[in-house]
Design goal:
The complex is a heterodimer of chains A (446) and B (183). With 446 residues, chain A is an alpha+beta fold. Chain A has a domain of 195 residues. In chain A, 50% of the residues lie in helices and 13% in strands. Chain A is built from 17 helices and ten strands. In chain A, the strands form three sheets. Chain A has a five-stranded mixed β-sheet, with no helix packed on it. In chain A, strands 6-1-9 form a three-stranded mixed β-sheet. In chain A, helix 3 packs antiparallel against helix 4, helix 4 runs antiparallel to helix 5 and helix 8 runs antiparallel to helix 10. Chain A is elongated, with a radius of gyration of 28 Å. Chain A starts with 18 loop residues before the first helix and ends in an 18-residue tail after the last strand. Chain B starts with a helix and ends in a 5-residue tail after the last strand. By secondary structure, chain B is an alpha/beta fold. The longest helix of chain B is centred in the middle third of the chain and has 18 residues. In chain B, helix 2 crosses helix 4. In chain B, a hairpin with a 5-residue loop joins strand 5 and strand 6. The radius of gyration of chain B is 21 Å and the shape is elongated. Chain B has a single domain, classed as Rossmann fold (3-Layer(aba) Sandwich). The chains are: A alpha+beta (446), B alpha/beta (183). At the A-B interface, helix 1, helix 5, helix 6 and helix 8 of A face helix 1 and strand 2 of B.
Chain lengths: 446, 183
C-alpha cells in the first residue's frame, strides 16, 4: 500500500476545508480523547471493591476454613503499598489469626494500625484523584467499626500471648476509633452509646487491667460496662471474671457488606440486622456435657448494627453532586440530539461529559469482607486438663468442635474460634502454628 | 483532560510514604537513647558505684509499655533500651558487663542452632547487680481534628538486691497530628 497518493500536490492550492468536515474532525478528535478517559475511569470504577482474582480466591479459601491458603494468596497483595495496603493487610491478618499464626497476624494488623493512626496518608495527588476521578484512589483506612476491629484483633493477639500492656493499649485504641467520629459535638449519652456498642473492647480492656493488677481500674470498667449493658451482667460477674481459666472468643456469622444502593454513587452497608434476624444464642458442650452459660450467650456486639452508623458523609455529598450534574449533562445531550435541528456533535459532547462524570461518581465499595457479625466472649471455669469442646448456634448450621483444648491449673488460656458452616472440624489442639509453643500448665492430662 | 488526570494518578504517594502519626519514632529513639547514655555516664551516683565496685553487671529489660492507646511491639520495646546498652558498650566498655535477660536468653537458646554467634554464659551463671529498665507513659487524646500524645519516658538503673534506684533519667516529648479531609 502506497501513501504517495495521499501526499498533497504542491502545485495544487489547498482547498478550503468545508465547515462540516472541520466540525466532524473536531468532534471525532475530542470523542476519541473522551473515550480514552472514559475507558480509564470505567476500568477504575468497574473494580470499586478492591478485589482482584487473588483476593477473591483468598476470600473463598477463608470462607472454607483454608486459612493457610488464604494467607498465601494475600501475602503478595499485602506487600504492595498501594491504596489497598491497609485493606489487604487486615484481610491477611484475619486469615493468619484464624490460622493461629500469631506473630505474622500481629505484623499484618500492626501495619494496618500504623497507617490507620497516621494523618495525611492521602497526599494532595491522591486526594485530588479521589475527588476528581474515583474514590478508590484514596488509601483505604476503613469505616470506624472496621478501624476498631483492627485494634480489637491486635489486642486479641497480644492478649492470647499474655502481653497485657500492648493488649490494653490496642483495646483503648479500639474505643478511640469509634469515639473519634462521635466527638464533634459528643454528648455524654453518645459517649456511653459508643462504649456499649463496642462492649467487646471495653470488656477486654477491663480484663487487661485485671491481669496487670490494676484492680481498681478494672473494677471501674466492669462496673461501668454493667451499667451500660445490663444484658451482659453474666459476663461481668465477679466470680466468673476472677476464676475463669479458659476464655473462648467465638466469632459468628458474616459481617456487613458494602453495596450500591440503586445509584452507583450511593454505598451502604447491608444487611441491616432486622433483615437477617437476631444473632442466635451460643451453646457450648465440654466433653459432651452442655455448659450452663446463663447470660454468657448474649451477643456483646452486632457489627451489622454498628455498620449502619456511617460517618463519612462528605464524600457521599461529593459523589451525589457529581452524579446529579452528570445526569443533567446527559439530559442536555439528549435534548440536543432530539430537537428539531439536532446538533449531534454538541449532544455527543454533553453525553460523553456526563458519562465521564457519572463514572467518576462510583462509590468506593471496599470493605473488610472477613469480619464476623458478632464476637462472643466466654470466660469459663473448666477442670484443669484436656477437654473436647463443641460450639453450636442451634439450627443455623454454625458449629465447630475441638479436641484436646487445654484448661490450665492456674492463669488463663485464651482460644479464638471462627465458627462457620464450613469449619465444623473436629480440629485438634494445638493448631500446627502453635505446635512448638509451650502448652499451658496442667497437672495431668485427661 | 487526560493530560490533567495522568499526572494526578501517577503522582499518588504510596500508603506508607505520605502520612505521619504521633507514635515514638526513630528520631526519638536516637535522641532519647543518646541522652540517656550520656546521663548514665555523667551520673555522680553511677561514677561512685563504679569506683566502689568496678564494672557494673547490668541486665537490660525491654521497655514496659504504660502508654495510653499506643502499642509498642516487642522489637521496638527492646530497641529503646538495647540502644542504650549498645552505646555504653561502645563508649564505655570497661565500665559495664551486660547480661542478657533470662527470657531473651531462653528464647535464643531454643534456636541456638540457627545462631551464628556464641550465646555466652547463661544469666543464671553470672548474677546481675543492676537492671536497666524503662517505662513509657503517655496521655493520648483523639478527636475528629487531631490526635495528640504527650510522652514521659523514664529510664532507671536499679539495684536488683535492694531495689534502690542508682540513676533515673527522663525524656519528654509532645506530638500532634492534625487530621485532614481524608483522615
Amino acid at each position: 500500500m502506497s501513501f504517495a497518493r495521499h501526499q498533497p500536490d504542491p502545485q495544487t492550492p489547498n482547498p478550503e476545508p468545508s465547515p462540516y468536515v472541520h466540525h466532524s474532525s473536531f468532534i471525532i478528535h475530542h470523542f476519541l480523547h473522551a473515550s480514552v478517559v472514559l475507558l480509564l475511569l470505567t476500568t477504575i470504577a468497574c473494580n470499586p471493591t478492591g478485589r482482584n482474582p487473588e483476593v477473591n480466591r483468598a476470600l473463598t479459601d477463608f470462607s472454607f476454613g483454608q486459612y493457610d491458603l488464604a494467607a498465601q494468596s494475600l501475602r503478595p497483595q499485602a506487600a504492595n503499598t498501594n491504596e489497598n495496603y491497609v485493606l489487604n493487610n487486615v484481610r491477611l491478618g484475619s486469615a493468619l489469626l484464624a490460622d493461629y499464626n500469631l506473630d505474622a497476624a500481629e505484623a499484618a494488623f500492626y501495619k494496618a494500625y500504623e497507617v490507620i493512626n497516621s494523618t495525611g496518608v492521602n497526599d494532595a495527588g491522591r486526594s485530588t484523584a479521589a475527588i476528581a476521578v474515583a474514590e478508590q484512589f484514596k488509601v483505604w483506612k476503613g469505616e470506624p467499626f472496621e478501624r476498631a476491629m483492627v485494634n480489637f484483633y491486635l489486642g486479641l493477639v497480644y492478649y492470647i500471648r499474655h502481653d497485657y500492656n500492648n493488649a490494653r493499649a490496642a483495646f483503648e485504641n479500639a474505643l478511640f476509633k469509634l469515639r473519634d467520629y462521635g466527638e464533634g459535638d459528643l454528648k455524654e449519652d453518645k459517649y456511653q452509646q459508643i462504649d456499649s456498642d463496642f462492649a467487646i473492647a471495653y470488656y477486654m480492656l477491663a480484663k487487661c487491667h485485671l491481669k496487670l493488677a490494676n484492680e481498681d481500674k478494672a473494677n471501674d470498667l466492669f462496673h461501668r460496662l454493667a451499667n451500660l449493658r445490663p444484658d451482659l451482667r453474666g459476663l461481668i460477674d465477679d466470680n466468673r471474671t476472677a476464676e475463669n481459666n479458659v476464655l473462648l472468643i467465638v466469632e459468628f456469622g458474616q459481617g456487613p457488606m458494602k453495596v450500591n444502593l440503586g445509584d452507583n454513587s450511593i454505598a451502604v452497608f447491608r444487611p441491616k440486622p432486622e433483615e437477617v434476624g437476631p444473632i442466635p444464642r451460643i451453646n457450648i458442650t465440654v466433653d459432651g456435657k452442655p455448659l450452663d452459660l446463663r447470660q454468657l450467650n448474649t451477643p456483646p456486639v452486632d457489627l451489622l448494627a454498628l455498620a449502619q452508623d456511617r460517618r463519612w458523609q462528605t464524600f457521599d455529598t461529593i459523589r451525589l453532586t457529581k452524579s446529579a450534574i452528570s445526569m443533567g449533562l446527559m439530559g442536555v445531550g439528549a435534548y440536543q440530539a432530539s430537537k428539531r435541528h439536532p446538533d449531534y456533535g454538541t449532544a455527543a459532547a454533553f453525553i460523553a461529559a456526563g458519562a465521564l462524570l457519572k463514572a467518576s461518581s462510583q462509590a468506593d465499595l471496599r470493605y473488610w469482607e472477613m469480619l464476623p457479625r458478632s464476637v462472643f466472649l466466654l470466660p469459663l471455669r473448666i477442670s484443669p486438663g484436656k477437654h473436647d469442646i463443641s460450639i453450636n448456634f442451634g439450627s443455623h448450621g454454625f458449629n465447630q468442635s475441638w479436641r484436646g483444648i487445654v484448661a490450665p491449673d492456674s492463669g488463663e488460656a485464651t482460644y479464638y474460634f471462627r465458627v462457620t458452616p464450613h469449619t465444623r472440624g473436629p480440629y485438634t489442639w494445638p493448631p500446627a502454628n502453635l505446635a512448638d509453643q509451650p502448652a499451658p500448665k496442667i497437672s495431668q492430662a485427661r | 483532560m487526560l493530560l490533567l488526570l495522568l499526572p494526578l494518578i501517577a503522582g499518588c504517594a504510596s500508603a506508607v510514604s505520605a502520612g505521619h502519626n504521633t507514635a515514638l519514632d526513630s528520631v526519638d529513639l536516637t535522641s532519647m537513647t543518646d541522652d540517656m547514655a550520656h546521663k548514665i555516664m555523667a551520673s555522680p551516683a553511677v561514677q561512685r558505684a563504679l569506683a566502689q565496685n568496678g564494672k557494673l553487671k547490668v541486665v537490660v529489660q525491654p521497655v514496659e509499655n504504660k502508654m495510653v492507646a499506643e502499642i509498642l511491639p516487642r522489637g521496638a520495646a527492646e530497641a529503646f533500651t538495647g540502644r542504650v546498652r549498645a552505646l555504653l558498650s561502645e563508649f564505655a566498655p570497661d565500665k559495664f558487663t551486660w547480661l542478657m535477660n533470662r527470657d531473651d536468653f531462653n528464647a535464643l537458646r531454643r534456636r541456638e542452632r540457627d545462631l551464628d554467634f556464641p550465646l555466652g554464659p547463661s544469666p543464671d551463671a553470672i548474677q546481675p547487680e543492676y537492671a536497666l529498665v524503662a517505662r513509657f507513659n503517655s496521655i493520648t487524646t483523639e478527636d475528629p481534628k487531631h490526635r495528640a500524645s504527650y510522652y514521659l519516658c523514664i529510664y532507671e538503673l536499679t539495684n536488683i538486691q535492694d531495689r534502690t534506684s542508682l540513676w533515673t533519667g527522663k525524656y519528654e516529648v509532645k506530638k500532634t497530628a492534625l487530621k485532614g479531609f481524608m483522615d
